[in-house]
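Field reference: "sequence" (input) and "structure" (output). Example, Glutamine-dependent NAD(+) synthetase:
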Amino acid sequence: MCVLVCNAVRDNNIQVLQDVQRVVGDFTYKPEDPRELCKHLFTTCYMASENSSEDTRGRARELAMQIGSNHVNINIDMAVKGLLGIFSIVTGRMPQFRANGGSTRENLALQNVQARVRMVLAYLFAQLSLWAHGKPGGLLVLGSANVDESLSGYFTKYDCSSADINPIGGISKMDLKNFLQYCTEHFQLSALRRILAAPPTAELEPLMNGQVSQTDEADMGMTYTELSVIGRLRKISRCGPYSMFCKLIELWRETCSPSQVAIKVKHFFRMYSVNRHKMTTVTPSYHAESYSPDDNRFDLRPFLYNIQWLWQFRRIDNKVSDVELGYGSNF
């Protein structure tokens, strides 16, 4: 965006120049360098916890430096401990991570409280950062959840995915990676290479020997590549469990057996139906593709489903048996 603005100003676009001067609050300002303009417009914030790795912190700092954003490092542990302290006083119990002997419910709740604290802090800094520097106005909060996370429900309701607008909310992880590869070369953002090479992780569970123990794909039970294919079949091709299974058994026949495809399809539709309600509160997104599952603006299917999918899953099981017994493979 800053590159486009600087190019427009360089081409004597008076309207763009006036817009920039109004936004930054300086009617003598004339942007020439995109990184310098970014410093005026864009604040990035790395919200570390005791579960954050130094590698992730370093990648955030390096990218912020290369794009020129006003970068802030904060630690959320004090806020998280304060909330857990209130819970402990009221209930007399203190939840533990699964790695420390806690249950699945405790483990999930401890992850969610970190994510939700980040949302609250993001809005606090957006409202008061300019005030703290003696400047007028406030900032918009940008979200960063992608289509695949929304599709599978791999995010916390009312967490750091909640924002004023989400520029990438209508883009799949695979398309997003292609876009980042383009930016790496076109805008000379070498920091993106390290980001692309790193396994996607929420970093909400305890580290093991200083290294990340949690990855998105392990949590979701499938890869982002698989989820991207499934998402297109669900939204664009309007597939339910059985029709999706019939298509994937052909698409993935070189890499997965019919039983493996069945497991993946059933797992996806369980996640989809359990988490579909989250889409009713999703941040408004920019839509550039036809596969978005955005409930309010783009995908008007129900948000409450019977998660057992009895009829559909039974047909999948019957088809698996037929295929494995050699009774035809044409769908």
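The chain has a mean pLDDT of 91.
DSSP finds 14 helices and two strands in the chain.
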